[in-house]
Design brief:
Shape: globular
Order of helices and strands: EEEEEHEEEEEEHEHEHEEEHEHEHEHHH
Low-confidence stretches: 332-395
CATH class of the domain at 9-143 and 282-332: Alpha Beta
CATH architecture of the domain at 9-143 and 282-332: 4-Layer Sandwich
CATH superfamily of the domain at 9-143 and 282-332: Ribonuclease Z/Hydroxyacylglutathione hydrolase-like
Number of strands: 19
Largest sheet: 7 strands, mixed
Helix content: 25-40%
Distance between the termini: 28 Å
CATH topology of the domain at 9-143 and 282-332: Metallo-beta-lactamase, Chain A
Length: 395
């Protein structure tokens, strides 16, 4: 296929739209950047001007103070040097957006990160018809299939309620931006008090300012370290980097858990050394990627990050023109996991173990599983309350 006139191309700075002279989620400083969401691997300091979804501009400014940023409502159109640009919900985190660009009768959409399941903390993913779709593939393997969120939160509530009855604290590790707020919105706030780590609480404020209903939370640092009784029966939400640190001593008797899609892989909880784990992700699972791509009607699909090869292979088998871009996305959450993993294991050992587990799971899947036509592989892992635990393998 002739790619000379593509609407979006790969440059050293990031994804570039030549006719519009702007970038999407660039990783090097540029004059004009359209940002799909405020995670650190997609939103970086150094650009002259930023454009992002209106609902996410507060979060973006809180993470990148002092930037020159403009917000655009979902579905509104902005013409940049003759290119029609609009932003559409991606369902990943607050303010996450797919970028639709139209020029010369052609329509391209860059997804950023996305999930298709409903989430009370952000607008739901909206399929956008296009000729070419640029997609993520963080969980682009057939072994990654999510249980309904209600079941996961039922498990979290049961764990917290049991701990509270025993007079102990419940410490739940999850990413500070997006996952933490989804957890807060999904748990039963009547079980007990909720405290948050200092990396989480400022983002809670940004979510509340955007109109998201979150339960009342308290900052852990407001409680004197010696007052352990304050945390009995409480839920504490913290980032992965807090695991195993001296910060944890203030809670006295506690049970800990981790919420992450990576815990679908066997053995993760053991390596993370937590009591429980919950398979909860803000990315599309394997069926979600397939359904989202189909809904666009795109005949050409470009995969940017995650498990690229399996998704490209499946797309090709569906008769689509499939390829990939080599990007620098995916580091935000991986970094958070590596910080935590450094405290319990050698990262290279973790990567080797995860790779072996994934390869074993892939081997167990038949070719029909790979094509997504057989759902049996959704049971290749034990149930989420026993097979849980993080240990994130870099895609």
């Amino acid at each position: 296929m002739d790619t000379a006139n593509d609407l979006i191309v790969l440059r050293p700075e990031g994804l570039y739209c030549p006719p519009g002279n702007f970038y999407i989620d660039p990783w090097r400083p540029v004059e004009r950047a359209i940002i799909t969401h405020a995670h650190a691997d997609h939103a970086r300091l150094g650009h002259a001007k930023y454009l992002t979804a209106e609902t996410g501009i507060g979060v973006l400014r809180s993470r990148l103070p002092g930037i020159d940023a403009q917000g655009l409502a979902y579905g509104a159109h902005l013409v940049i040097e003759g290119v029609d640009v609009s932003l559409h919900p991606a369902g990943h985190v607050l303010g996450s957006a797919q970028v639709r660009v139209e020029h010369g009768g052609r329509v391209w959409v860059a997804s950023g990160d996305y999930k298709v399941e409903p989430d009370p903390t952000c607008a739901r993913f909206e399929p956008v018809r296009c000729d070419t779709f640029i997609t993520e593939s963080t969980f682009g393997l057939p072994i990654y299939r999510w249980d309904p969120a209600a079941e996961i939160f039922g498990g979290i509530d049961a764990w917290w309620r049991h701990n509270a009855a025993q007079g102990r604290a419940s410490v739940l590790f999850c990413y500070s931006f997006g996952k933490a707020q989804r957890v807060l919105a999904g748990v039963d706030r009547a079980i007990g008090p909720i405290f948050c780590h200092g990396a989480v609480e400022p983002l809670n404020r940004a979510y509340r300012e955007a109109g998201v209903d979150l339960p009342a939370t308290r900052f852990v640092g407001d409680i004197a370290a010696r007052d352990k009784a304050e945390f009995k029966g409480a839920l504490i939400v913290a980032p992965p980097s807090a695991a195993g640190s001296t910060w944890m001593r203030r809670f006295g008797d506690y049970s800990d858990a981790f919420a992450s899609g990576w815990m679908r892989v066997r053995g993760s909880r053991r390596r993370r050394n937590v009591d429980r784990g919950f398979v909860l992700s803000d990315h599309a699972d394997w069926p979600g990627l397939q359904s989202a791509i189909r809904a666009t009607g795109a005949q050409r699909v470009i995969v940017t990050h995650g498990y690229i090869e399996p998704l490209v292979r499946w797309l090709t088998e569906q008769g689509l023109d499939a390829g990939s871009f080599s990007t620098e996305y995916g580091d935000d959450a991986i970094e958070a996991d590596i910080q935590s993993d450094n405290q319990i294991n050698n990262p290279s050992d973790i990567q080797a173990n995860i790779k072996a587990e994934i390869e074993a799971n892939i081997e167990a899947n038949t070719e029909t599983n790979i094509q997504g036509n057989n759902q049996a592989d959704s049971q290749t892992d034990a149930p989420s309350d026993t097979t849980i635990a993080p240990a994130r393998s870099a895609p």
